[in-house]
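Re: [help] complex structure
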Amino acid sequence: MSETIDERGLSCPQPVLDTLAKIAAMGSGELDVLVDTEASKENVARAAQGKGWRVESITEDGGEYTLKLIGA
Amino acid sequence: MNNFFATRTGIVSVGLVIGCLAALLQYLGNPGNMGICVACFERDIAGAVGLHRAGVVQYMRPEIIGFVLGGLGAALFGRDFRPRAGSAPIVRFILGVFAMIGALVFLGCPWRAILRLAGGDLNALFGIAGLIVGIGIGTLFFKQGYNLGRSQKTYGSVGLMMPLVMAGFLVLMLLYPQVEGEPQSGVLFYSLKGPGAMHAPLLISLGVGLVVGVIAQRSRFCTMGAFRDLILFKQVHLLSGVVALLAAAFAVNLVLGQFHPGFDGQPVAHTQGLWNFMGMVLAGLCFALAGGCPGRQLFMAGEGDGDAAVFVFGMIVGAAFAHNFGLASSPKGVGPHGVAAVFIGLAVCLFIGMTMRKKA
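Output below.
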């Protein structure tokens, strides 16, 4: 099952806080995180990897990013 | 991740470079343990344009101009320029005002707190402890859902406002250069004595500012984030950069004979431990609530963040209040109303932190 959280426009550390809370709630699965700055993209990826989740893909669309995170 | 600066090696390299350059700036003329101090330098800029008339702290610091323009250049080059604004700007302005007031009770931003320690000023330990406590209080608000709300994408010109202001400041400095022995040149004020009279040559200061602006924008170097991420996420990524800055500045200070350990007689510092601590509690809390240390706010303003730009102007106006109202400390100790200002600032932060939260 895949879930999505929209972190666009939120400043540091909100995207990371929300991603980690979602990861903790889901335990495993597929999570799409929408962000709109390079810093948020890097921070969310780093935080997810720190929890053992994998960054499956990062797609860009007009300066916005969707990070597909997979937790086994 | 294809950004070298986002790696551990990258952030440590950035910290090392900033630490070395800051210590060198002191050697080349900047005030003691103040190679780079974002709070002090914005305060000097407030003085240079006459927002306050404290004659010893007036100089248009090219480092600050370089930080913003370097950040802009790096963001444009890295396709990372994101014009955005609209996340509670008035709150960010007020947080900037009190961040500056707190920093001037201590006498330094977090960068300078680290540089003071690297120069042997042990009073900085109280400031750094206060900074960590202030950030820690901020993380409690984050855990309760504190949030300044979303920013919106906006016109490129919005993101260019702060870089244009800084470019304008640079033009003013070139039009009205410092004249030996004169306290004023055209519209700009120049200190004849005190920290404002101590500065490295303009082009060197500007060059260092540009270099730091570029590498700090790419690496997201942030001294507040360093402690916040440690407390909130047990992450040491940003902290490793701050430790590298401390180590590099310490090493260069030793080599250049700039390391003088002790509490008394430290440059641009006072020995009132409690207020060194409390000033930075206030500043740290403001930085945490606003999402970045003063340096980081400048780099974000350079990459198009209009809300960070508002925070910066809050700091500059806060410096004017701090000196006009007698809130800023001096080497003799806290100003006549500095203690009251710290408590007012903390009350304002509590109000902001407790009322701006989304329902769980």
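The two ends of chain A are 12 Å apart (CA to CA).
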